[in-house]
Amino acid sequence: MSAAQAFYPIGTPGTAWGDAERDEWRSRQSRRRSYESDVLARIEQLRGRFDVEHYGCLDYPPDRYPLFAVRSREWNDDLPIALVTGGVHGYETSGVHGALQFLDRHAADFAGRINLLVVPCVSPWGYERVNRWNPDAVDPNRSFREGGGSAEADALMKLVAPLRERVLVHIDLHETTDSDESEFRPAKAARDGESFEAGEIPDGFYTVGDSENPQPEFQTAVIEAVAKVTHIAPADRNGEIIGSPVVAPGVINYPVRQLALCAGITDARYTTTTEVYPDSPRATAEQCNAAQAAAVCAALEFALAHR
Fold first, then answer.
1. Cβ neighbourhood burial of 296 (10 Å; 0-12, 13-18, 19+)
2. Would you say 177 and 204 are in contact if contact means Cβ atoms under 8 Å apart?
3. Other CB atoms closer than 10 Å to residue 234's CB: what's the count?
4. Where are the domains of the chain?
5. Cα–Cα 20 to 30 A to 174, which of 59, 139, 219, 265?
């Protein structure tokens, strides 16, 4: 019996969860913050400056969650498109609030230069319960494919589908937290009936590029901008971050489409997944939000300069 399976309170070691285990897991999740107050109220405040689109609704009885995207008011079909997504993993707080901060404080700098499509909170059920998964114990960020099993991913893919060939740059805002190691990776191992091997949480910001289209200069531009706001994660003793080789300071690559990650949902030339570390003693919540906004700004500036 592995250490994680020994302590994780749901399921039988070595056996994947069934309906009963998923029901038990769901029963343990409780609302810890408000999507309506934290996110919808702030989107409502943006209506005077942006077009707000209701692109779907998640029906998780007794709760229903309307989904909203924020668009440039002066949308121009002659301009390229920038897609910004936050809260694909609802518990990753700065992804949501960094996207909202970008809209409020920085989006005006790009008016008339690029069309913005920003989805601040892809997974509101997870946001409220500070969880990585949706109510079916499905990870939305491994579900951006047909039949992926995530209503959150399906709704976003439907929204983006008409535009996917015109997107120049996509920034997907995430966090790596201590709870990844203490809760979510052990939960995944228990859910899948697998053993859990402890890993190491990097202390600092890093980006994940697409191994099929890595764009190293683009990734470096994002890292350099964020380094002015918060610290960048160093490689571990194996030259890796979360088990992947570091290809440049603060940069690793994943096969994003193979893994059905959000960063692979368009044909964008430039894509990155940001990873902030909010549990660092060297970073505040304000810095984490500012780091996400800085990453978006740097990504857009680079993409516009290298079209």
1. buried
2. no
3. 13
4. 3-305
5. 59
Q: Provide the 10 A C-beta neighbour count for residue 93.
A: 23
Here the tokens at position 226 are 């964020």
Strand partners, 119: 85
For the chain, how many residues are written? Answer: 307
- Which CATH number applies to 3-305: 2.60.40.1400, 3.30.200.20, 3.40.630.10, 3.40.50.720? 3.40.630.10
- Other beta carbons within 10 angstroms of residue 170's beta carbon come to 29
Of 75, 248, 269, the C-alpha closest to 165 is: 269
Cβ–Cβ under 8 Å, residues 134 and 140: yes
Say which amino acid occupies 143: S
10 Å Cβ neighbour count for 187?
A: 23
Residue 138's SS3 state is: coil
Q: Which amino acid is at 57?
A: C
Instruction: Report the DSSP beta bridge partners of residue 258.
Output: none
Token output for 198: 């402890």
Q: Over its length of 307 residues, how does the chain's per-residue pLDDT go in tens digits? A: 344 445 799 999 999 999 999 999 999 999 999 999 999 999 999 999 999 999 999 999 999 999 999 999 999 999 999 999 999 999 999 999 999 999 999 999 999 999 999 999 999 999 999 999 999 999 999 999 999 999 999 999 999 999 999 999 999 999 999 999 999 999 999 999 999 988 999 999 999 999 999 999 999 999 999 999 999 999 999 999 999 999 999 999 999 999 999 999 999 999 999 999 999 999 999 999 999 999 999 999 999 999 9
The identity of residue 56, as a single letter, is: G
Bridge partners for 13 per DSSP: none
